[in-house]
Structure formats: C-alpha cells, structure tokens
Amino acid sequence: MDRKTPRKFATTPGTRDVLPPESTRLLDVQGRIRDRFALFGFREVLTPALEYAEVIEEHGLRDVSYKLFDQDNQMLLLRPEMTTPIARVISQRLAGSPPPHKLSYVLPAYRRASVGRGQSAELYQAGVEVVGSASPTEDAATIALLVDVLQSLGLKAPSDFAVVLGQSTFYAGYLRHVVPDAATAVTGALAAKDLVAVDDLAEELPAEAAAGVRGIPRIVGPAADKSLIEEAGRFALGSEAREALENLREILRHLEAHGALGAVILDLGLSGRHEYYTGAVYEAYAAGLGFTVANGGRYDNLLRCFGKELPATGFAIYLERLLSVLPEEGPQPLLVLVGGDVGGIEAAARLRRLGVPVLHLSEDLPPEAAVEYARSVEAAWISYPTTGGVKLAAADPAREFASMSFESVARTVLP
Amino acid sequence: MSVLRVAVPKGAIFVDALAALESAGLPAGVLRENGRRLVYRAEGTEFIVSRPSDVPVFVEYGAADIGIVGKDVLDEQRPNVVELRDLGTGRCRMILAAPEGGAEDVRRAIRHAEVVRVATKFPDTARRYFERMGRQAEIIELHGSIELAPLVGLAECIIDLTATGTTLRENDLVVLDEISTSTARLISNRGSYRLRHSEVIALADAMQRRGERFG
Q1: What fold characterizes domain B4-90+183-214?
Q2: pLDDT-based confidence at B213, cuts 50/70/90?
Q3: How far A16 CA lies from chain B's nearest CA (Å)?
Q4: Which of A148, A264, B156, B190 is buried deepest, with most CB atoms within 10 A?
C-alpha cells in the first residue's frame, strides 16, 4: 500500500496546482478573452477575494461560501462569484460617474465543492457586467460578446457550442396571470428541471391554463426559427408576459444585427437561478459537456441591496470548463540553448531580439541530456552556440544538428 | 451530428428500460446479447450499461446524453439534470420498516423524538425524511443487504426500496411508513437537452405514448 502523503504537501479538497502546459493554456485563454473584452470597451477591475458576509444576500451562494472571521469578529467570506462584488464597487466607488458602467474581470471565485461532483473549490472566471441600463440592446450586446469570445477561441456555432436564451419573467408572468395560486409550485418544479413534476401539476389545472404550463417550457429551438416566437405569442397573456415577450423580440432583433443569432437557441423554460434573474437569462453549452460553460442574464434587483436603482446585465465564463472543450493546440515555440559561456549569453540575446523564446542553460549538457531537458519543458528545439550562429536540432533522439544563422533559426522555430 | 449515447441501468429496471428504448425506435436489442460488455454500438446509437446509481453521474457530466434511472436515485442524489418523462415502469416504494418484534419500540421512539438508528442505502433521503418530521435519527449507510442490519442489532429500523414486499416478509420486517413511490424516469443532461432538443424530445414523446398505452 502507498504510504500516506503528509497532509501539508497536499492541496485542500477541490483545489489544485495548475502546471504547464495547462497553466500556459489557461493564461493564454485569459489573455485572449481580455483582448476581446477590451475591444468592446469593457474596463477590467480587481476586487479583494475577501468580502463581508452580508455583501452576498443570496442564500444558496452564502451557503457554499468559505467563511472566516476578522479581528473584530465580523464574518467574512471568500467571494463565491464576481457579480455582487462588482455591484458593490459600482455603488460605492462609481456613483458619481454617468452610467452605463461597463466593467470586466478575470479572477477566481471560491465555493465549497462537493468532492466527486465535477466542481472545483477555486473556479477561474472571466466575465462582464453592464450596470445602469435597462435596454434590451445591452442584453443582446453582452450575448453577442459571449458568442464573439467563444468563436475567437476556435469554437464554432452551432456544432461546438450554443448560447441558450430564455426570458425568466415570461413563464412566471404567464403563471401569475393565469394560475396565481399554482405559480410558485410550477416555477419551483421547472427550476428543479423536473418536467415530469411540471406535467403532474398541469394535470390539476384547467385545460386552458395547463396548455401554457406544459407548452411554454417546450418552446425550444434555433433562435433563427421565427415560428418559436410566434408560438410563444399564443401564451403572452397578462402585461408581465406580454412585456417579457416584447423584450425577447427586441433582444433577438439586435442579436440578428450583431450576426450572433445563429449561435443562439431559444428555451422559454430556461430560468437559471430563478429568484435572481429578472429578464433575459442565458447559458452557454458545449457539445459533449453536461455543465454550462458560461451563464448570465439580467439582474435588475441586485443593486437595490446597495441602495441604488440600477438595472444590470452580464455573464461569467467558467474557464476550466471552457478549456476542456477548446480545440487542442500545440505548445508555444521554445528553444533550449545550451552552454557556451559568454558566447551563449550573446546568442540568446540575439535570438530573443528576433522574437525567439530562448531558455538558456548555463551548464554544458551533452545532447542526450539536453533533449531530455527540452522535452520536460515542452521545448521543440535544442541548440548550441557557434561563431555567428547556432547548431540547431529538433528535440528528439534522432536529432541531426544543422549550423545556421540567427535569422534562419528564427524562421525555422517561429510559426 | 455525433452519436447519441444512452446510459442504461443494470438490475431491476433493465428489461423495462430496453422495452422503453425500443418503443422509441432505438436499437436497444443489442443489449440483450447477454455479454459482459460495457459499451454497445448500433445504428448511430451507443449504449452504456452501469449501476443504477451511476446513471445520473454519466448523464450529468455529459458522458451520456440521456439515461434511464429510478426516481429513488434522483431523489437521493439530486443531480443537475433534466427529468423528461415518467416511464411508469419499475414501480416501487421507499419505506421505513422494522422487525415485527421491535416495531412498537421504533414507533414510540419516533413519537417521543428519541434518536432511532436507521440503516439505509439512501442516507440523504433518510435524513430529509426525519428532518421533515422534526425527528432525529442516526443514519448508517450500507451498500448491500439492508434487511440484515436490524436482524443483528446494527440498526433498529431500515429505510429501503421495496417492489413486492417479499424480502421484507421473509425477514419478518413490517412497514411503518411509506416515504415515497418511485418509477423509472428518462433524464437528459442540460446541454444535450438544448443542443439536441428535437432528437431528445422525440424520444421522450415516443416513450410517453407507450407509457400511456400500457397505463
């Protein structure tokens, strides 16, 4: 039997060290997402990992947060998500500047994970929030940005991924208008994704009401298919549901203008965290993965907790899940330059000026050892300095060295 | 479109599950060949056979698109999956039972909010049952024959599934309370439900019609 690993050498349950090549990929994806966010005018913020416990009002989120106490015995928690900290930042620090506030973040959040349920305790996230606008154009713009980000990382819609879009007040509004007494039970069953229970509840309702109770969650399909919205129109009873549907129509009209409609699937039964979202709600799914890659929506009530009447919308991407569905990419170019004393330093400097990433080993290793080392750091090339250039070889046992100038090394090594 | 992967449970509801899948036009007959294989392929569909309690795990992670599993397992594990249809088959009851001789003691203990010791394969279901009643229980999780526990004094009562009640009778156990009833359900992961909606919902509808016909 294995000897027990001493506890101080293990990471805590649900957390892990991220090593190359995974860390390289994670940082690369973070960088590319940052670039897309910046291109759309979002400005990135950093907030503390620790927040006062009362900042997070949602029970579910508070329950899964790690808690600790400060020197005044105030309860703190490690942020379980980034939307609420950003709402706090805006209400406290940006109250004087004109809305809408368009902020982004690329930071980890922390949740107590149940081991074996595919959850980590430390979740790397990237997301945006638009605070201070109630316009459906902002909902559409953030969805389009999410589509843009996923496409820019090499995913294709709809074969690799889709953003599933719903409107949380449409179903709830219909229920409140048609069967107010049953509304809570039905939305609860739907939030639990239990369509059997929804059907069972519908059985007990008058036929006319039951048609919508059953029918609305069944409106699922490509957003470009106009007949879905037509069908939803049959159930647009009561002012709440009518306004919700009009809001959804506006979002779809703008998504079409963004050229993002093809990546969107409508699901009028999608409710997300149903007591949190107040309008558009969406989740991104990738083929072969049962979990959401990203989720978002409109949350017009959150800022009220901080004393501001500011409607808001935004999304968060789960980066580990995203990484698991991204196409494989080869390692970044890297060349191991071995020894050569002062000449080696000069050669490394020349190569770096040409843009070649160089790992310079000061010790004079023989080629076999140099290949082994290069492979351990995922470098595709090894080289030794010569006069006016280097001897270059691929990092494999059957290597053959070729002497060449610094310029031809750059042409060979760089993509 | 990639192949549709279906998780099928071994054991009591296996045969009914095959019938339901076949009624929806899926080539589940390959599973009858009585082998020990874990994966079967036929006509663009892939079937995986697993323990019933593992079916929701395969489905939730997206390793299978859809699966068939008892409501009892869903109640216990509460996986984040879409529950599509009640197939109406594999009906059984989740019950609280105790040896005939000790039944009155258990009733009294529960009435007086004393701690009772209960053996079960469904610890979360058991915990929620006692919490809902405002009663206390010490829950012992077992994986095999639950009926054994009260016979040898490991527990005073059990919470377990029963279809016909035969095993209970054979071991002189009497039912004290019925906690819930369970039937087989068709489930799908949240991604497949949306990304392959027309395909998944067509299967669900075909299975439902069968359920209705056999009432």
Answers
A1: D-Maltodextrin-Binding Protein; domain 2 (3.40.190)
A2: very low
A3: 20
A4: A264
